[in-house]
Fold:
Amino acid sequence: MRFWFKLWKDTKLRKELTVERNEKDTRTHKILNALEEAVHAFDLPMPIWLDKNIKDFKRSSRCRFYQDSFIEMIDYDYLEIHVLEEDTGI
Structure:
């Protein structure tokens, strides 16, 4: 699976990262591992998956994590995750 992570501030794309996860694992684990890799690269805390994030992600394979998804303060408007390519396997 391939993911595209983007950090937005003031309607501008400030940082982006593409993460590929090829391990034999469930879709959920691949998403969580990719998110962990991205927040580490961006030096952000791990966001909390709220019901609205899960709903958006299930519907469109993308979601945005706003300040309410983070315990710590972030200096960006939101972190966006988008699935670029799905696995054909598991």
